[in-house]
Amino acid sequence: MEQLKAPSRIGIVGTGRMGANIALRLNERGWNVEAIYDTNPSSANILSEQVAAVIAATLADVTELCEAVITVVSDDAAMLSIFGESGDSLLNNSSGKLFINCATLSPKVHVEAQRRATARGAQAIEACMAGSIPQARSGSLFLMCAGNQDAFERARPLLEVMGSQVEYLGTAGKAAQCKALVNMLMNINTAGLAEGLGLADALGLDLPKLREVFARTGAASRVLETDGADMEAREHETYFSAAHAAKDSNIALQLARDVDLNLPLAAAAAAQYDRMVTAGLGDLDKSGVAELTFKSRRAPRR
Q1: Which pLDDT score, from 0 to 100, does residue 302 have?
Q2: What are the residue ranges of CATH 1.10.1040.10 in the chain?
Q3: pLDDT in tens, 237-255
Q4: What is the pLDDT of residue 301?
């Protein structure tokens, strides 16, 4: 099949922070965001006005109206639901359509979604995203892609508008595995930084000065740049929520269990994010894990 090109008709399923900003980016670059769908009417209504898209009443309507559909859903269950094998589904009358699945999910779910799409004569790839809201809006995501290579090449022009770096990593599930590892390491780094700053605070150290020391030594990290000041100031505006950190950490742990590998650091980080969710802090940014590690503010154990 020919490559997509602007102004191909594009659908967006999942109009939360990432899906909405991808839609804005595509619209800005001349792509026709034809239809959107979300179980949350308020987010869909706002985006519809911004990009002049139809709010589809059903998933099947999105497929009917669009040549390609980008999905950004919350979890494994949501993914299997939108690609349901009966009832309302993106798979209805989907022969010849292209699905680009961007959510961070269990690799086996990406594999299954691609299997179901192929069985209906459609194409599907995973395009797992590294980056957050600003990168989605500016088209500077790092996209880890996997699945049928012909489908990837068909999607490439669209992917290159969404991301500044687009990598093809192999067969279905491989990109999702890589993304799970990316987020596992990021979450470990974030939890570790929160512990370091929490201990420093309890010792009475000057935190801004300590962050400068970290930045000039082996303690330097991307997480220090993005989250360090926020941890100190207790400013946890959500770019990547603690609830998502918990979900993604546990995806990585399941991959480890599948190959009989013990990952104690990953398990400890996952436990911290699980604690945040239990304590009602799951909607905070992942930097909010510092609320557990500063002695003066940590959430009680439950």
Answers
A1: 40
A2: 177-293
A3: 999 999 999 999 999 999 9
A4: 45
pLDDT < 70 stretches in the chain = 298-302
Evaluated on CA atoms 251, 257, 261, 262, the torsion sign reads positive
In this structure, are residues 122 and 94 in contact, taking their beta carbons and an 8 Å threshold? yes
What local confidence, expressed as pLDDT, does residue 208 receive?
Answer: 98
Residue 248 backbone zone (phi > 0: left; psi -120 to 50: alpha; other: beta): alpha
Residues in the chain: 302
Decide if domain 177-293 falls under CATH 3.40.50.300: no
- CA–CA dist 204, 278 (Å, integer): 29
Where do you find CATH 3.40.50.720 in the chain? Answer: 9-171
How far from 112 is each of 15, 101, 132, 289, 290, CA to CA, in Å?
A: 23, 12, 26, 33, 37
| CATH class label, 9-171 | alpha beta
